[in-house]
Amino acid sequence: MPGKSAVTWTTMILGYARSGLIMESRELFDQMPEKNVVAWTSIVKSYVENKQIDEARKLFDKMPFRSLYSWNIMISGYLDNKRVGEAIELFRVMMPQSNAVTWTSMVTGLARNGLIKAAREYFDQMPNKDIAAWNAMITAYTDDGLMIEANELFNLMPEKNAVSWNAVITGYARNGPGYEALKHLALMLRTCYRPNNITITSALTACESMQELMQVHALVILLGFDSETSISNAFVTMYSRSGDLGAAEDVFKALQDKDIVSWTAMILAYSNHGYGKYALQVFACHINEAVKVVNGMPPKKKDGALIGTLLGACKLHGNVDVANQLEEKLSEMDPTGSGGYVLLANLYAGQGKWDNLARVRKKMKDKQVRKVAGFSQITVKDKTYAFFVGGNSHPQWNTRWGRSEVLVETRYHRHILVSLPPTLQMKKKAKWRDKRTEMSYSTQVSVTTHKVIDSAVLPCMVS
């Protein structure tokens, strides 16, 4: 690459590395005519980011000159990959030229590796503690549930910022007692620090009474956070948990920009208060909007449970068009989970979409998705027998199989003895031969057959 500056070379090296093309990044580095400290640091960082720590160390040792940034990258790489001993050894070598960033990295990294006491020792030895170091140590204590130590350190801080306050408030909200989180929120306001979304959300989760919840809600309105979707979602959940479904509904209805979390929070609120069917009806009325929200979500935030909720609403209202859209997403997000596929199959069967049903079953077979086998059990003469769907392990299976077919024939023509399972009710258009086979494998039929054969005059328990 003649005529290219060192900046261009370095940018290309990092670009390849961040795309996971570490070999291409290394080739470019080797071709570089004049390598400065920035280029060396970039290639070391490339290997660290791709978790090739040993190769990064080889290059680090070859560096003709190392900057503080180079040392910090290598030490952080060791800590991030749980190689604490090597990080400590390297830190001791460069300690005379270490800076606040290096010390803070050691404190944070040691705490993240579960070495909270060692982290405190390094913090105490730190020559010039900046606010980032104080916050790192406090956060380490709160993450470990050590709120007494965190609060003591917080009170010793010569200067606090919003991160400091959030660390303590979030810690108390997570570890308790909740009233301490609200107390520190009040102190934060008195010191003229403005809360942010993290502060408010933490304070919300700390509320243990309706009075506290309403006070925080009033503060949110006063500060203008009531239009924030994430905060409104938290209020829906908290009001529901506190028993005030009406207040949860009011917050939900007032929310302008609803996301999938909003809908899910409201569904759970209705379900927890005994309105599960109504929850799905309300959700189904806006299912197209919900699908748009799902389509716009980052891939990492989508999961099989989310698609399952949408499919449940589709099934309730027979919305085949939307189900078709969700079928592919289910394959992407939850390829081996059976729940979503079963919902799809039942929906298609209920609407008479037999081609779609066959396609779903083929996908399940191709992906080796297996529904958890249903079973029934019966107690006869002080012995308990369990019958699984399709099971044939019983020693008298051949005898019972013949009786099962008789019972199924009787049930189909006379409507007695055994109730059709819901999935079979939805297949009224299927051939009777297939029905007979599937019903004969039913656990309910197996239990009834066992009862007829072995306990015609004895009481029995079926579950």
UniProtKB/TrEMBL annotation:
A Pfam family of this chain: PPR
Keyword Repeat among record annotations: yes
Single GO term (MF): RNA binding
PROSITE patterns hit by this protein: PPR
PPR repeat residue numbers: 5-39, 67-97, 99-133, 161-195
Source organism superkingdom: Eukaryota
Keyword Membrane among UniProt keywords: no
Transmembrane residue ranges: none
GO biological process: RNA modification; system development
The entry's keywords: Repeat
PANTHER family: PENTATRICOPEPTIDE REPEAT-CONTAINING PROTEIN
Name listed for the protein in its UniProt record: Pentatricopeptide repeat-containing protein
